[in-house]
Amino acid sequence: MPTAAMPASSPLHDKPESRIAMLDWAAAEDDLGRDGYAVLPALLTPAQCAQLAGCYSDETRFRSRVVMERHAFGRGEYKYFSYPLPATVESLRQALYPRLAPIANRWHAAMRLEERFPASHDEFRDICHAAGQRRPTPLLLRYEANDYCCLHQDLYGAHVFPFQAIFLLNEPGRDFEGGELLLAESNPKQPGRANVVPLRQGDAVVLAVNHRPVRSARGYYRANLRHGVGRLHKGTRHTLGIIFHDAA
Hints:
The chain is an alpha+beta fold. The protein has helices at 16-21, 25-35, 46-54, 87-110, 121-130, and strands at 37-40, 62-67, 74-75, 77-81, 139-143, 148-152, 163-168, 176-178, 181-186, 193-197, 204-208, 211-216, 219-229, 232-235, 237-243. Pfam families: Oxygenase-NA (PF09859).
């Protein structure tokens, strides 16, 4: 469910970093801990969504294009941005990371994982680059009728930030039908479960990249999560993916 209602539009509130700062991050952490995801409503305006979706045709902004069917990932395609990232994409990455890094560190402590994450994304990016993870990972995805994405995890190297964000850039029911975001969890001590994540245009979802900690009588254990996209029935669906670790 949404973690916070957003105020009416204004020039200040139209800045994504301002909207991110106004969210109820304690509620978002509760949602992440319980479900492995948290919906962040109305972080982008319709105009910002249209501008980002419009980037798809500008090949100068991207380092590579992936046709999913060629790799048995599903159907559809996506493109990885090149550095420097578009201003809005860079702002989202920079503004979300410091809100998520303390949660990431608490999760890693609970799951007895050694890596801890610095306060700023610039510091974390330097760590990735020093380890040979130098290729930018924010991406723009496009789905058309009958396209879908198989369940997967976005792991690109030794340094993996445990959260990523997905922004829906089109409006369900108007621009497309179907194409729901799916999240599946495998739990070694309980039956698995699946969620359909409800999003509207401009909403974001922060989700676990690979694991979430689950409390037990003896501490915490790890539940495994994957995400994908159901089959699109008609229209066109664009999403922006913000992954915080770069690729090797």
